[in-house]
Amino acid sequence: METVCVVGLGYIGLPTAIVFALNGKHVVGVDTNPEVVELLHQGKIHIEEPGLQDACAKVLQEGRLVVSERPVPADAFVITVPTPLNHETNEADLSYVERATESLLPVLKKGDLVVLESTVPPGTVEEVMIPILQKSGLDPYEDLWVVHSPERVIPGNILYELEHNSRIVGGMNRESALKGKELYSSFVKGDILITDAKTAELTKLVENTFRDVNIALANELAIICSELGVNVWEVRRLANYHPRVNLLSPGPGVGGHCIPIDPWFVIGASPIFTRLIRTARTVNEEMPKRVCQFVETLMSKPGEGNIAVLGVAYKADVDDVRESPALRIIDILVKQGYTVKAYDPHVKGTYKGKVNTLEDALTDMDLAIVTTDHAEFRCLTPEYVKRLARNPVVMDTRNMLDSRDFGNAGVLVYTLGNGKQLGKSQLSYAEAASASDGAWQV
């Protein structure tokens, strides 16, 4: 398999195409968005990912990667298109997968490998892709190799993880799985594990569901600690000394295309027996609303005042805003009547309340909310906040600022889940500083 056609050049497809090209394959990258195609023809990428621009420029210049708006004949086809959630029905939108599969029909030939990398509900390859592939006149079980091999990478470290993470390859039959393993062995340094397609589909969903359930536990503990007057971060620190406990961090909600989406695919596949998974989703989806409820306790007049939202990406140091809880927080605050100025140093696109600099966001603000733990925000100083703000108060939903240092310098910092502070908006600076730490830490 010397030629690979990658259909869909987004956050996963473009890095995947580049890695194949870096490892000796002749790659055609396909995307139906003419702006994406034009940028790549210019040698530019449309997403932010460390090392990706240089790698992309290299393989484009060498001719190992070419870009097209439609598939061309190849030995292997890798589909990496979105599978968004329909938020009205909580069902997967598989239209992108359907159209991508249909786009292969004119160029498929006997002996081709067809890989679906997109995260999908169990049974998608068998029930959605196979009937479409049959329209080619080829038998998907005899004439083609058909597999599902889900991506398992994290934005910000994609190039490394593509090569070093283990890989699951689920085939419609054993021969297909082995053919898929052969393709990925061209660059994967981790283990390549073969199974059937439906098991591979469910395994990917379970990985992200595991994360969602455990984040929900952390978020629920933050709510409990707020009620009990306890600091959740101190509870987490102490509990994680237990050799078999690893509590995750609470936060303003769960974002990204995977963790808040994939559990719904599991729920849809088995709606009766997914009570725990459904509850975890509910807990995490309610966190932006709870953040806004906390905001009301910190503002002198509910619905009035200027609020700076620091970060709209769903995680640190990336430009990805898919399912970002910060965007939901902004929407809620605007509906409540607040004037919101939002700033994110990584996100180039438009979003509600967008300003172009951190100074713009903080000027004359009555409350700043840290919603994303970008490295740029770790450099915030209390002096900078005091110089620009009308009211030097910060709500830290990521526990990234040193509350004691800020408090001692005259800037109140309220940390999500710190019940020692909740509702005490008139704390003195010294009291806020002392309440930020656990009792008697050395």
How would you portray this structure in words?
By secondary structure, this protein is α/β, with parallel strands linked by helices. The protein has helices at about 15-20, 35-40, 50-60, 95-105, 125-135, 160-165, 175-185, 195-230, 230-240, 260-270, 275-285, 285-300, 325-335, 360, 375-380, 380-390, 405-410, 430-435, and strands at about 5, 25-30, 65-70, 75-80, 85, 90, 115, 145-150, 165-170, 190-195, 305-310, 340-345, 365-370, 395, 410-415. The protein is built from 18 helices and 15 strands. α1 (about 15-20) crosses α3 (about 50-60). The longest helix has about 30 residues, at about 195-230. The mean pLDDT is about 95.
Summarize the structure.
Helices cover 40% and strands 14% of the residues. It is of the alpha/beta class and 442 residues long.
